[in-house]
Amino acid sequence: MPKTRSGALCILAASLLFSTGGILIKLIPWSALAINSARCFLGAIVIGIYMAIRNHRLALRGPVLIGAICMAGTVTLFTMATKMTTAANAIVLQYTAPIFVMLFLWVFYHQKPRRADFITCLFVLLGIICCFLESFSSGNIAGDIVAILAGISYAGVCMLNVSPKADALSSILLGQLLGALAGLPALFREADYRPQPMLCLLALGVLQVGLAYVFFSEGLRSTPPVAVSLICGIEPVLNPLWVAIFYREHLGVLAIVGAAIVLVSILTYQFRHSAPKSSNIPQTSPPNQPCDPANLKESS
Fold this sequence. Notes:
Layout: H1 3-18, H2 21-27, H3 32-53, H4 62-84, H5 87-94, H6 97-109, H7 115-138, H8 141-160, H9 168-182, H10 184-189, H11 195-220, H12 225-232, H13 235-247, H14 253-273
């Protein structure tokens, strides 16, 4: 099988695994912090084993450590948002990270966005407003705000990953460990250890986090950035679909319209900036996945 095709299949497998996050989190009757602690611990084990097999040395440089903090914040906030609002709003609103990257570049690096970037921002803002209006009627507005914060945190991960001293895999591993430590008190308070939540938790940590990152990292070695961005676009579509099928969580019309606007706008943005002649704005993968796929670094 050609390397490009096998790489694309790895990216597809990773996206499918990432998309199970919403339904697995919904099915576990624990607090968000407890769930995140356990899944991060399990995910860190798998990622650590992968790094050892690949002889990828753990980096402890400044940008890596700050990136790890942002990653820990992202996974924690995403888990909280999934518990507090609909799975669709949680993933779609976090999916706005590339827009915050663009804004951060403008504010901190004086890279003024182009007209097309401004238009993208306006469409994303329109989609967010639709999601918020839907949540006002259902009382999930706090969860939507947490999801937006997750998007901002993930934008920080993406910004730091363009540093020459960055190491995405090290930041991911350390971020998982920080997320696990942050939720330990909540984890120790849980008392429901029935088979179903335990199996869901095992799948969440080993498959949805650990194995997904392994597939994603392997796929990046031979898959063009444009293909990566397009294939990864299935995650925010499938995530709420699994929840609707297996958890009976359905969306209102405004939420569906808002999600569609955000996804189309972000995918268009991703496609444009994954092109060979794109600007210096860093590429970002869908939330829960290592951002800046073209620059995922292997330490020597």
